[in-house]
Write a structure and sequence with these properties.
There is one protein chain. This protein is of the alpha+beta class. It has a domain of 31 residues. The protein is 28% helix and 21% strand. The protein is built from one helix and two strands, in the order βαβ. A two-stranded parallel ribbon has the order 1-2. The longest helix has 13 residues. It is elongated and about 50 Å long.
C-alpha cells in the first residue's frame, strides 16, 4: 500500500470535479488538512 503521510494535494477545477476528487482522496486516506482546493466556473465571454 502506498503511504501519503507527507503529501499535500492541490486541486483546481469545477465544483463537480472537486467533489469527485475529494471523495477519491478521502478513500485513499489523504487527511483533510493536506488537501487544498480552488474552484472555478466558466464565465461568459464579453465581446
Amino acid at each position: 500500500m502506498i503511504q501519503y503521510h507527507n503529501s499535500d494535494v492541490y486541486v483546481c477545477g469545477s465544483t463537480q470535479f472537486l467533489r469527485t476528487i475529494s471523495q477519491s482522496l478521502e478513500e485513499i486516506g489523504i487527511p483533510k488538512d493536506q488537501r487544498y482546493y480552488e474552484g472555478f466556473r466558466p464565465q461568459a465571454m464579453s465581446l
